[in-house]
Design a protein that fits this description.
The chain is of the alpha/beta class. Helix 8 links the parallel strand 9 and strand 10. Helix 7 packs across helix 8. The longest helix has 16 residues. The chain is globular and about 65 Å long. The mean pLDDT is about 95. Bound molecules: glutamic acid. The site of glutamic acid has 7 residues, from loops. Glutamic acid binds next to loops.
Length: about 280
């Protein structure tokens, strides 16, 4: 089977060394195998993404010497596709509207005896709106009250095989534990669909066979695998790579402007030298 990889940055800042490493990894894997390398802009969050950063991503990757196949897919141009998936899940009773504010959730959690946390350290949603009587829910929807959409995790797990796993390169089969996410948000009040929903949708739609990305997204793979199983989408293979760190061992982030590709270019760095430094397989 022909390999299809992708680089899927969110345009919330300039690309830094960590992104360059991730992009090079996906690009090299495709090019070495005569496969396809896709570029996707995960610009679904209107509060954090800026068109200027999208344009900069394309420029920075071209400067680095990476070429991609086909059109760049910008998620913000495909909102009806994600909406259709959410509608399908709603029709199956697998998502429910959540009207809670952060304050509501904090209050509810403070009042309960236990407060389990998800893999990202955030407290799990206590299920308040899952338990709303149908009439109250309908009235609040009819009144146009802003709401998120949450996955009903218990129902979702009941709709898929009891054992879910994914293939991680170099490790083999890894068991998933999506329940640790609780009733995950699939559409936010202020963003039409969540990263988890859009990324799994697009990987399936675009025929991605190998997902290469940073190890920070590894825990999310269990939730992605659950969505794939619920929606009948194929499961790609995964290769999570270690995150680059700075001299003090701290993980690079978009806010570390010193490490952006823009700055390196401005400082006269040659792209070939940077490629060789980041990926010895390219030297
Ligand atoms: N858009 C995500 C990010 O920039 C990456 C998505 C992925 O590779 O799965 O962190």
């Amino acid at each position: 089977m022909a390999i299809v990889t992708r680089f899927a940055p969110s345009p919330t800042g300039y690309l830094h060394l960590g992104h360059a490493f991730s992009a090079l990894t996906a690009w090299r894997r495709a090019r070495q195998a005569g496969g396809t390398f896709l570029l996707r802009l995960e610009d679904i969050d209107p509060a954090r993404c800026r068109p200027g950063f999208s344009a900069a991503i394309l420029q920075d990757l071209a400067w680095l010497g990476l070429d991609w196949d086909g059109e760049v897919r910008a998620q913000s141009a495909h909102l009806p596709e994600y909406r259709a998936v959410l509608d399908g899940l709603a029709a199956r009773g697998l998502v429910y509207p959540c009207f809670c504010t952060r304050t509501d959730i904090a209050r509810e959690v403070a009042a309960s005896a236990t407060a389990p946390h998800g893999p990202d350290g955030a407290v799990l949603y206590p299920g308040t709106c899952r338990r709303l009587p149908e009439e109250a829910r309908a009235a609040r929807l009819a009144a146009g009250e802003p709401h998120a959409l949450r996955l009903d995790m218990a129902r979702a797990l009941a709709a898929v095989p009891a054992r879910l796993d994914y293939e991680e390169e170099g490790e083999g089969t890894v068991a998933c534990d999506p329940a640790q996410f609780g009733d995950a948000v699939l559409a936010r009040k202020d963003a039409p669909a969540s990263y988890h929903l859009c990324v799994t949708h697009d990987d399936a739609l675009q025929g991605v066979t190998l997902v290469t990305r940073g190890a920070d997204l590894r825990a999310a793979t269990g939730l992605h695998r659950l969505l794939q199983a619920l929606l009948g989408w194929p499961a790609p293979r995964y290769a999570h790579h270690a995150l680059l760190t700075d001299a003090t061992g701290r993980r690079l982030a978009k806010r570390d402007s010193a490490a952006t590709l823009r700055q390196m270019r401005a400082a006269g760095m040659a792209p070939a030298a940077l490629r060789a430094r980041l990926d010895p397989a390219l030297a």
